[in-house]
Amino acid sequence: MKKIPFVKYTMHGNNFVIVDEIDKSLLTESEKFRFAYQATNMNYGVGSDNFLVIQPWTSETLEEIKDFRNYWKMFPSLGADEAGSGDAEYIFRMFEPDGKEAFSCGNGLICISDYLYQKYDVESARMMTEIPTRSPKAVTIGTDSKEELNWANMGPPRISSNTNTVLSHKIEPIDIQIKLPENGLSNSEKEISIKFSGYLVFTGEPHLVIFTELGFSPAKMASLIFDSSSMRDSGALLNKIGRSLNEDTQRFPEGININFVRLNSGVLEYRTFERGINHETQACGTGAVAVSFVAKHLNLISTDKITIWPYLSRRHNPNAQICVRKDKDDYILYGKPSLLFDGNFFVEEG
Question: Is the whole model's pTM more than 0.90, yes or no?
């Protein structure tokens, strides 16, 4: 058995177990796959939404990932930053409960930025993300100590994971129709057809953004999603829609995160079903960026400083809000995560 030190962070209830491998490797690639279950399972492990690893950006680390995962044939090129550097300091890894590696995570990057600042006094760093794609990207994260905020520059929203093509100013919706039990909740054999339009955006993760007040039918289903008096039913409906769409591997081969959005007194409010976890989470950073981007391009909001309410998180903290700022083509996510606790977990070697 070996002892694995970890920290647990949360950002609006979206919570993570983080293992720091900056100074030395603690888990082999095969052990990371297995540890994801132990890190995320609340009954037989620590309990979290996802398992994060931070590693040094070195040829040795990249070689180990390449040889074991076969994501790339050659070391990926990250592209130059504003200073002309094509290097990164760290590698950001995120694993789902089943051990599969995800692309990226806005809230996870925010938590990592706070961790780097608190432990290593790192105010800003370039981070390699989107590891399990043909072309990983680099994002810059940091801490504004004066404002006591952490941030992650998620870059410009793109068309998909394997392209650098930035989404144009004109985005077109896709129309979707699915069938669910009539009330959307039970195992009744009687089905009802649900129709809606959504916008596909890649913000480090693939997202579908759906405005429930724009073409979502039947109306009773749309109103249920943000019905605070029926949280159990609305959550069940949201998860059924999310799972139904993720079963459509022909349309969404990588899976899809689904954001349900409404305008509430001029503020964007949203709920997100996450593809790897396969259920709704309290909040989603890349989802907040996707929602901001679509709302801007639909002219639903005019400001470049966007406030978003994470609906489920606000059930716990009525003041919870996510801030996104548009800077030219880039979208920057802001927040203040919380370190919950640190500890050690014992795992079998090999």
Answer: yes
Asked, as a colleague might, if the bond just before 76 is cis with ω within 30 of 0, I would say no
Nearest-CA neighbor of 106 among 347, 340, 335, 343?
A: 335
> Does residue 183 carry a pLDDT above 60?
no
Return mean pLDDT, the chain: 93
The total number of structural domains in the chain stands at: 2
> Is the CB of residue 295 less than 8 Å from the CB of residue 268?
yes
Tokens read off for 43? 């009954």
Same structural domain, 14 and 95: yes
- Separation between Cα atoms, residue 11 and residue 337, nearest integer Å: 5
51, 178: one domain: no
The count of residues in the chain is 350
Residue 174 in tokens: 């896709």
| Pair 103, 220 in one domain | no
Residues 41 and 117 in one domain: yes
Residue 61: pLDDT over 80: yes
* Element spanning 295, H or E: helix 285-297
Residues near 137 by Cβ (< 8 Å), separated by ≥ 6?
A: 78, 79, 128, 129, 130, 155, 204
110: which 2 tokens? Answer: 């925010």
Q: Is residue 42 domain-resident?
A: yes
pLDDT digits (tens, 9 = 90+) for 82-129: 655 668 999 999 999 999 999 999 999 999 999 999 999 999 999 999
Per the rule left: phi > 0, alpha: psi between -120 and 50, beta: everything else, 215 is left
Asked if residue 112 and residue 205 are part of one domain, the reply reads no
Asked if 324 and 343 sit in the same domain, the reply is: no
**Domain CATH for 87:** 3.10.310.10
Range of the domain at 42: 2-155+338-347
| Alpha-carbon span 137 to 164, nearest angstrom | 9
